[in-house]
Write a structure and sequence with these properties.
CATH topology: TIM Barrel
Organism: Flavobacterium commune
Distance between the termini: 31 Å
Order of helices and strands: HEEEHEHEEHEHEHEH
Number of helices: 7
Function: Catalyzes the complex heterocyclic radical-mediated conversion of 6-carboxy-5,6,7,8-tetrahydropterin (CPH4) to 7-carboxy-7-deazaguanine (CDG), a step common to the biosynthetic pathways of all 7-deazapurine-containing compounds.
Structural class: alpha/beta
Number of domains: 1
Radius of gyration: 17 Å
Number of strands: 9
Subunit structure: Homodimer.
CATH superfamily: Aldolase class I
CATH class: Alpha Beta
Shape: globular
InterPro entries: 7-CO-7-deazaguanine_synth-like, Aldolase_TIM, rSAM, rSAM_sf
Largest sheet: 9 strands, mixed
Pathway: Purine metabolism; 7-cyano-7-deazaguanine biosynthesis
């Protein structure tokens, strides 16, 4: 149980449940292959059964950390920071992104969009999930739509989501890692037949990096 004082700091976004932070190569989507400092925030109630970071779901397992500490660490590395989770929009991102921008950092987010958008972002990667669909604010602001393909029905879901996201968003289909051998050929065929889409792969896993 958090003290009342710490809970107030968490509520306003001055402290966040930090799971991990690390400097690596972006493995997915539009910015694949570029250096970035990842900040993984704990807490998610979307509950994808194939999630590869289920340890991020319970925010209580990850200690509330001052955003000053988070920003100081991030500013030592690349000029791009990626906020991920968990589901980072569970929390108010306004203070964190403001402080990161004060350090002249580019600030990206990877989100399911399940909660309203908060914060100031240079790039928003929306990866919608069937369990809890995105809010209108994230559909409207997303720069990139990345749909995870776990089975054939997910192509239908992808098209439904493409209809809802703003028309400027770049569209990606990405195989779920455990189904990559089965789904990747189907994604390749689908993109060739529907060239508004692009293929995204989890290249960091092929490279054996975080």
């Amino acid at each position: 149980m958090l003290s009342k004082e710490i809970q107030l700091e968490v509520n306003k976004g001055a402290m966040l449940p930090l799971m991990e932070e690390f400097y690596t190569i972006q493995g997915e989507g539009f910015h694949t292959g570029t250096a970035a400092y990842f900040i993984r925030i704990g807490g998610c109630d979307v509950g994808c059964h194939w999630c590869d970071v289920k340890e991020s779901w319970n925010a209580e397992l990850h200690p509330p950390t001052s955003i000053d500490h988070i920003v100081d660490n991030a500013s030592k590395y690349a000029d791009t920071v990626v906020i991920t989770g968990g589901e980072p929009l569970t929390w108010d991102m306004s203070l964190l992104t403001s402080r990161l921008k004060d350090k002249n950092l580019k600030v990206h987010i990877e989100t399911s969009g399940a909660y309203p958008l908060s914060g100031t972002w240079d790039w928003i990667c929306l990866s919608p999930k069937k369990n809890k669909l995105p809010t209108e604010t994230v559909y409207n602001a997303a720069h990139e739509l990345k749909v995870i393909i776990h089975n054939k029905h997910d192509f239908i879901f992808a098209e439904e989501q493409a209809e809802l996201v703003n028309h400027k968003a770049i569209l990606f289909l990405q195989p779920e890692w455990s189904k990559k051998e089965e789904m990747t050929p189907l994604i390749v065929e689908y993109v060739m037949n529907n060239p508004k889409w692009r293929v995204s792969l989890q290249t960091h896993k092929y490279l054996n990096i975080p």
